[in-house]
Amino acid sequence: MQRYLAVLTILLLLGMVCVRLLLMQRSGIKAMKFGEIDKKDFLIPPFALFYFYLIFAAAFHLPTVSRQQFFESRIASWIGVLLCLAGLMLLLLSLISFGQSFRVGIDPDQPDKLITTGVFAFIRNPIYVAFGLVLLGQFLVFPSWIFLVYLFAGIWLFHRQVAREEEFLRMRYGEIYEEYCDRVRRYL
Q1: Which residue segment(s) compose the domain that 172 sits in?
Q2: How much of the chain, in percent, has pLDDT values that exceed 90?
Q3: What's the rounded Cα separation, in Å, for the pair 156 and 175?
Q4: Any idea what the Cα angle at residue 168 is, between residues 87 and 107, rounded to 5°?
Q5: What Cα–Cα distance (Å) separates residue 109 from each residue in 33, 73, 113, 164?
Q6: What CATH number should be reported for the domain holding residue 7?
Q7: DSSP string, 98-109
Q8: What is d(CA 52, CA 21) in angstroms, rounded to the nearest whole number?
Q9: For position 43, what pLDDT does the model report?
Q10: What is the pLDDT of residues 65-95, one digit of tens each?
């Protein structure tokens, strides 16, 4: 059951982001800016697609890299499901709080306003925290070395992107952003 819920988490996560992108596109806003500033980002989607395949492979017993697990624990697996659900809820709250300012990547042309309300009043980067919770939850459901590697790689990539975005936000909003940083934590 937990394995199927982990797959559902990935589908819902992708669905929420894709629906938001489509809705914004219908409003005339190009929200997909990923890879436009740093061309090396083109390396990320193949690894993400492979990750999605690994989730499906682990849940539905498809061919995979390894079936070796660090541990077998129903409790850890259910905690993983709860972390995935918490990540989905945080992502949903983030998308709602973002409103029309949502972008995938940095948009130097039409950056919109700085969002400091809703979930952003408590966490400066709730979407990355949400993704991190999902990755951690997925690892607890599928406790293998490959999911552990993806967990650490994902956290590193999220932090790298946060640093880029914060640099842009400092340049764009100046003192207003600095005051926001003083009030609200980067992650948790």
Answers
A1: 2-183
A2: 77
A3: 27
A4: 75
A5: 10, 49, 12, 16
A6: 1.20.120.1630
A7: HGGG--BS--SS
A8: 19
A9: 79
A10: 888 899 999 999 999 999 999 999 999 999 9
Q: SS3 helix, strand, coil % of the chain, rounded to 5?
A: 70, 0, 25
188 part of a folded domain: no
Q: What is the 3-state secondary structure (H, E, C) of 123-167?
A: ECCHHHHHHHHHHHHHHHHCCCHHHHHHHHHHHHHHHHHHHHHHH
Residue 111 corresponds to which amino acid?
P
- Bridge partners of 185, per DSSP, are 123
Structure tokens at 157: 């990539």
Residue 83 pairs in a beta bridge with none
The structural domain count of the chain equals 1
List own/partner pairs for 21-30 with CB under 8 A and 24 or more apart.
Answer: 21/104, 24/100, 24/102, 27/100, 29/100, 29/110
DSSP 72: -
Angle between helices 126-141 and 2-26 (to 10 degrees): 150
Contact 165, 128 (CB under 8 A): no
Task: Identify any residues that bridge with 123 across adjacent strands, giving them in sequence order.
Answer: 185
pTM of the model: 0.92
- The rounded distance, in Å, linking the Cα atoms of 188 and 186 is 7
